[in-house]
Write a structure and sequence with these properties.
The complex is a heterodimer of chains A (422) and B (236). Chain A is of the alpha/beta class and 422 residues long. Chain A has 18 helices and eleven strands. Chain A has two domains: 3-292, Spore Coat Polysaccharide Biosynthesis Protein SpsA, Chain A (Alpha-Beta Complex), CATH 3.90.550.10; 300-419, no CATH class. The chains are: A alpha/beta (422), B mainly alpha (236). Chains A and B meet through helix 7, helix 10, helix 12 and helix 16 of A and helix 5 of B.
Chain lengths: 422, 236
């Protein structure tokens, strides 16, 4: 579909009124009235404070909200903010809100933002989640400045998180993306990120838009696309991540958006990932304490029980996905008591690799393969919680690093599974 | 008298020879049709088998759950079975075509019926295959959903979905074959009854938890508060 055709006439008219822009900030929304006003106010403040001389525009791509989200975006003003007295607009800061065609989907919203950036010839663009209630004006500067100055093409965020927050990210998405593609991007599925105009055009030309990953899980697909395209990547420390991400409240949906998109990406990028044997760090801008340790009340027992029942109940499904040794090992640990239970790095890595290979071979419906991984992930999450119950921030980081190294070490086994040599 | 007998015998013999002379070419045509039919049927079998192997039909059949059924019945693989079925159907068609050239009265009606029945047989087989495929897909989807939402008895739910779809499929197949016109109606009645009973049980079981939660909230609020204090972990 040509870029212009995904922009409605109304959207196009508003964009033409803007003319050209140096900086663009996109906010994809769908029924985010509770938080979007504050987020847009902070974005405005960030743009006025750090980019007063640049031609800037805020683009809100809305999925047809019924809670007046677009009105709140258009009406958001910096006057209510505490630091408004220091901010003076040198140029008009445009704020456009328009509904994109089709069903609400983050991917479609992102594509609309990308098409807008392309049309406005923006040099640097950022995407900000409407649910990021912890956003500060500095986030805009930290994400956009390195791209606007031409130092990097793709900026991903680093958040301050609790040691038990983002378990799927720490136990699967980050280590696996790193092992597959050789870049240590801590947040490959980022709610906030920035990219250059050149990379934006590259994103638009990708084939992901005609697939399901072009609708859900697009964020991780864009990160992988930036890595695969050889663009300059960096990550910037932003601050605290909102404790609960609405994108991930449902585990199966979160797995579809991340693991499903990650497994899908292996297909077209086989020559790239199969030749990578290790990983390189990417530049990190800014620093801060990445892990917080305050005590949390977590129902570990439920995770353990759901893992056990999952292994028992899904036996016929797991038989078609996993090799007999891996399945029997899983059945063995599922029979252990809660105190003795351990879903170790090697077994978890083998499990995920066998799932990835089965996804490639489509042994059953691909969506069912991703869903079948959810109960096993709960077992791994239980082990992570138990092992790190008393761990310090450094110890947690060291354990994640060790797991990443295990993923990289065992990667040849995935290549063998992929080729059918195993 | 004697002459009359000789004449009748001669006439009868001549008629028999004449009839045989009429019948012999038809028999030869029938044999040729049967022979050519065998060659064509064999070619159909070979081509179909190659196409099904290229299309990984066995894999599809495995996913549909048909392979497991075939294994239990000690039958060959789905590809082999479909190829053989095509061979026998095609050849039987040619045999009947050949037989109809003999001009035997009464037999032609059966031959015509067979050719009318053939398309319905194919449609019924297609129904059966896609029905089994749907039963396998939806029962697995139900199993995964039940496991991931921590529902009680996921396998029971999965089996129920499989059985329901299989009953519908079997009814549709019988209906198509014209073997039991009232089966669909009966199956529908049974299925609806089962669904209603299932819903009644589900609401009963669900209501039990609801009542439990209500009573806990009403008479043991401390327990509820302790649960609410539990922090939710974000996977991403």
């Amino acid at each position: 579909m040509p870029e212009e055709s995904i922009l409605t006439d109304e959207f196009l008219r508003q964009l033409i009124n803007v003319g050209e822009a140096d900086i663009l900030v996109g906010v994809p929304t769908y029924n985010n009235a509770a938080t979007v006003g504050q987020v847009v106010q902070t974005i405005r403040a960030g743009l006025l404070k750090y980019f007063p001389r640049e031609r800037a525009v805020i683009i809100n791509a809305d999925g047809g909200s019924r809670d007046q989200t677009p009105d709140l975006v258009r009406g958001a003003s910096i006057n209510d903010l505490q630091y408004s007295s220091d901010l003076h607009a040198l140029r008009t800061l445009h704020c456009i809100s328009a509904e994109y065609p089709g069903a609400p989907a983050t991917g479609t919203a992102l594509r609309t933002i990308l098409a807008s950036a392309d049309l406005l010839r923006a040099s640097a663009c950022a995407v900000v989640s409407p649910e990021s209630t912890t956003i500060e004006p500095e986030w805009i500067e930290r994400l956009l400045r390195p791209v606007y100055q031409g130092n990097f093409d793709f900026m991903t965020p680093l958040y301050r998180r609790h040691k038990f927050d983002g378990l799927l990210m720490r136990n699967l998405v980050y280590p696996m993306t790193r092992a597959f593609y050789g870049k240590r991007v801590r947040e490959p599925y980022a709610a906030e990120f920035a990219f250059s105009g050149q990379l934006g055009s590259h994103f638009l030309g990708q084939e992901i838009w005609v697939h399901e990953v072009g609708r859900t899980g697009t964020e991780i697909s864009l990160t992988i696309s930036a890595i695969a395209g050889g663009f300059r990547l960096a990550q910037a420390f932003l601050g605290a991540k909102p404790h609960l991400d609405a994108r991930s409240s449902d585990l199966v949906a979160a797995m579809r958006q991340t693991v499903g998109a990650l497994f899908w990406s292996l297909e077209p990028n086989f020559p790239l990932w199969s030749s990578k044997t290790d990983s390189q760090a990417i530049p990190t801008l800014g620093d801060g304490q990445e892990v917080t340790l305050e005590p949390l009340r977590v129902n570990r027992r439920r995770l353990y029980q759901m893992f056990r029942s999952g292994v028992a109940e899904l036996d016929p499904v797991l038989k078609s996905i996993l090799s007999p040794p891996t399945l029997s090992e899983l059945q063995r640990i599922a029979s252990l008591d809660e105190d003795d239970f351990c879903y170790g790095d090697e077994l978890w890595t083998r499990t995920v690799y066998e799932f990835a290979a089965s996804y490639h071979k489509s042994v059953i419906s691909r969506d069912h393969i991703v869903q079948a991984l959810a109960p096993l992930y709960r077992g791994r999450a239980f082990t992570f919680l138990v092992e790190n119950r008393e761990a310090s921030a450094e110890e947690v980081e060291q354990k994640i690093e060790n797991f990443c190294l295990t993923c990289e070490r065992l990667k040849p086994s995935l290549v063998e599974l992929w080729d059918g040599r195993k | 008298m004697r002459e009359m007998i000789v004449n009748e015998l001669t006439q009868a013999t001549q008629e028999l020879v004449r009839e045989f002379a009429h019948f012999l070419p038809r028999l030869m045509v029938m044999l040729i049709v049967v022979l050519v039919g065998w060659v064509i049927a064999y070619l159909v079998k070979w081509i179909l088998r190659s196409i099904l192997r290229l299309a990984r039909f066995d894999k599809l059949s495995e996913n549909a759950g048909a392979t497991q059924l075939l294994n239990k019945a000690a039958l060959p693989s789905s590809t082999e079975l479909v190829s053989r079925f095509a061979f026998w159907t095609a050849w039987l068609g040619f045999v009947l075509l050949g037989v109809s050239t003999l001009g035997i009265l009464g037999l032609q009606e059966y031959v015509a019926r067979f050719f009318v029945f053939l398309p319905r047989l194919f449609v019924a087989l297609i129904f059966l295959f896609f029905g089994l495929l749907a039963a396998s897909f939806f029962s697995r989807a139900a199993l995964l959903w039940a496991v991931n939402t921590d529902m009680p008895s996921p396998r029971l739910l999965s089996s129920a979905v499989r059985v329901l779809i299989t009953i519908f499929t079997a009814s549709a197949v019988f209906e198509e074959l014209g073997l039991a016109d009232s089966t669909v109606l009966l199956a529908f009645a049974i299925v609806m009854g089962a669904v209603m009973l299932g819903l009644a049980i589900a609401f009963g079981v669900g209501g039990q938890h609801l009542a439990k939660r209500f009573l806990e909230a009403r008479f043991a609020p401390g327990k509820k508060e302790a649960k609410e204090k539990e922090d939710e972990l974000s996977p991403l």
